[in-house]
């Protein structure tokens, strides 16, 4: 008899991808470094085929670059990369939020307010993982209104590139406090029924590289304008 919970099948390629992604998260694979296919295949106990297949996915996602003669470089996240990713996420999330004006129920907006309050409590308790999870849920509350799978996948990939290489052990508390305030301003606009203003705020403030640059440089430990 089948149950509603079936084990999730993960291909060998998927398992290798997950393993490599975990090593990117932890910093075991460092930006700017090179990957020796034979050595990595031996360490993971797999053949080169699933390893290369997983690396092709990571190359498409921007985490690595596959060069001729099987040379693989782990990409660093540059300031230009971050600027581009912010523009992509801001434009797409703003578009989704405006289009959600006929779908986002008042209950969902109230849930966003609850999630934001939870984020504030997580910061008080220095619960970084909890803050990160609630932050994704806050944005997910309105992103769920979109049926455009390609758009949502693009946003998800852009956030993975920003957050996962490597994942920071802690947060820049000042930045995250500012983010909570911005979330409250988004909810305020939604409560007033002004979806256009909320969408523009998401694009032009919350995900604005120019607005967030001073935090970005500190969080990613990049030189300031006078040092660049």
What do these coordinates show?
The protein is mainly alpha-helical and 228 residues long. The chain folds into two domains: 12-74, Arc Repressor Mutant, subunit A, CATH 1.10.10; 79-219, GntR ligand-binding domain-like (Four Helix Bundle (Hemerythrin (Met), subunit A)), CATH 1.20.120.530. The protein has ten helices and three strands. The protein has helices at residues 12-26, 37-44, 48-61, 79-99, 106-124, 128-143, 149-163, 173-191, 195-206, 209-219, and strands at 34-35, 64-67, 71-74. The protein has a three-stranded antiparallel beta sheet with strand order 1-3-2. A hairpin with a 3-residue loop joins strand 2 and strand 3 (71-74).
Quick synopsis:
This protein has helices at 12-26, 37-44, 48-61, 79-99, 106-124, 128-143, 149-163, 173-191, 195-206, 209-219, and strands spanning 34-35, 64-67, 71-74. It has 228 residues and is mostly helical.
